[in-house]
Amino acid sequence: xxxxxxxxxxxxxxxxxxxxxxxxxxxxxxxxxxxxxxxxxxxxxxxxxxxxxxxxxxxxxxxxxxxxxxxxxxxxxxxxxxxxxxxxxxxxxxxxxxxxxxxxxxxxxxxxxxxxxxxxxxxxxxxxxxxxxxxxxxxxxxxxxxxxxxxxxxxxxxxxxxxxxxxxxxxxxxxxxxxxxxxxxxxxxxxxxxxxxxxxxxxxxxxxxxxxxxxxxxxxxxxxxxxxxxxxxxxxxxxxxxxxxxxxxxxxxxxxxxxxxxxxxxxxxxxxxxxxxxxxxxxxxxxxxxxxxxxxxxxxxxxxxxxxxxxxxxxxxxxxxxxxxxxxxxxxxxxxxx
Amino acid sequence: xxxxxxxxxxxxxxxxxxxxxxxxxxxxxxxxxxxxxxxxxxxxxxxxxxxxxxxxxxxxxxxxxxxxxxxxxxxxxxxxxxxxxxxxxxxxxxxxxxxxxxxxxxxxxxxxxxxxxxxxxxxxxxxxxxxxxxxxxxxxxxxxxxxxxxxxxxxxxxxxxxxxxxxxxxxxxxxxxxxxxxxxxxxxxxxxxxxxxxxxxxxxxxxxxxxxxxxxxxxxxxxxxxxxxxxxxxxxxxxxxxxxxxxxxxxxxxxxxxxxxxxxxxxxx
Lengths: 338, 269
Ligand SMILES: Nc1ncnc2c1ncn2[C@@H]1O[C@H](COP(=O)(O)OP(=O)(O)OP(=O)(O)O)[C@@H](O)[C@H]1O
Ligand SMILES: [Mg+2]
What we know:
The complex is a heterodimer.
Chain A lengths: L4 H6 L5 E16 L2 E16 L3 E5 L6 H8 L7 E6 L2 E2 L4 H7 E4 L11 H11 L4 H14 L15 H13 L5 E5 L7 H18 L2 E6 L2 H7 L2 E6 L2 E6 L1 H8 L2 E7 L5 H9 L8 E3 L2 E6 L3 H13 L4 E7 L3 H9 L9
Parallel strand pairs in A: 3-8, 3-9, 6-7, 7-8
Antiparallel strand pairs in A: 1-2, 1-4, 4-5, 9-10, 11-13, 11-14, 12-13
Chain B lengths: L21 H17 L2 H22 L3 H4 L5 H18 L1 H11 L1 H6 L5 H29 L6 H29 L2 H18 L11 H9 L1 H14 L4 H26 L4
The complex binds adenosine-5'-triphosphate and magnesium ion.
The site of magnesium ion has 4 residues of chain A, from helix 2.
């Protein structure tokens, strides 16, 4: 087996493998007679470290695919610069292509081909020997639960199976850096969870860097070390999922007290945790968003106990990435709100 | 855009997996295209049956005219025309396949690999040339059975010009397909090129049968000279038309391959 020495050398965490500054792309469009420009990506700065799993989160049309296509040399930026795996996308596209894997949003298979051939051909176009591509392809088929589909034509596979075939194609040459454009769209919950654990393993075992787009909040939450939130072609926030949630929304603390007489002392105690904010009262329920509520809870309960307030229940709800998105953009990303 | 930001990390001093050579990549694309094409028997059968039908159903109509062509058997004139028709028509439709591949995401998946983008074009053209070669052999073999007589060298030379023309048309069609990415644009363009070429090149009947004005118009068509050169090669009439036809074949080939290569290499195709 040919082992890429490249992998062992870039494995160390901390080196920057994707670096973009002011990356922008406009498309000329025509609305009736007027020629206008769609600013698909309006100046994106981003840095991704080796071994990170970074999620690109944003609604439809936010510019996720366009950014990925620029980073993978499929599209020339209108302005801005980017280096990927240390190579400039504009002046060294060949070297960039040699260093990455890419799974496009819209699929990559010829309906009449055979699944196994698609994977092997793709691997060979990356320059790996046929035997190696076949062995790795079959391994990926087993891991992605495509057993027995090696000779199946993609047109005779289900949407989710085809999606997993796309992913096998993108991984067959064991890239050290991989771009996945909505990898789990169309997968059932079990297949999604399986793919998440597969991606995590590739990172943990081989130090692979993963840059993926998604509009699934749970996916960004469960899989990604860091999330970049993109809206209308601009990155509006970038941090770990936890930090984003802490920073923007705070945990929702909900106290239910025994009777109405106890509402006022409860509300006073709760409000004291967040300067300048006051708790909402609804019947015997008192609630407030408290950043980092976990560290205040014990003290709060003790204080209320001392004040003679009998708590019926205490509930702390962690903010979701949707709360983050809502706060940042004024719009919701939740499926049911779309 | 080509200037690197000062903060950008330096290129890692690493050994990358080597990209496949140009020939290797062309071979991979060719093998893949051929495999998929051969799996569609309809495609193979139609490709072979069409010229046979022309020979069997149209050829006999020409037989009484043999004398006016100056040959003993009309097939010696007719087969070269059919070769060119095959070369132009078969190959011009290659672009439709490319548009379908674009839709499926195959082209983009190939373009993101380190394989030469020119190889993506050449591998596909090779498939069309091979198909044309097989069709041409069937056509000549069958023509021989019907009474065509020509020297081996003449037939091989005629086939060579046909393959050059076919490769040019395949390049043009694939290029158009990649630029337009739409069958709806491709179809009228292909038709509006193919029809005048077909009519004004004397493919079915030599233009020398027609009025002077038609011959003058035909002289403008490079393909007419190619048809004449192939006919000359078949009838043993080597001469100035052989030269013109060869020059045109090569010129068209070079231009269309150059345009095709440029289009496929572009970053934003
Ligand atoms: N080739 C193109 N020509 C014109 N406009 C385009 C083109 N590609 C993308 N756009 C526009 O650019 C914007 C960003 O598109 P992009 O595909 O990057 O969004 P996205 O974040 O990937 O969305 P989705 O979640 O739907 O995949 C959209 O408004 C889209 O209409
Ligand atoms: Mg997208």
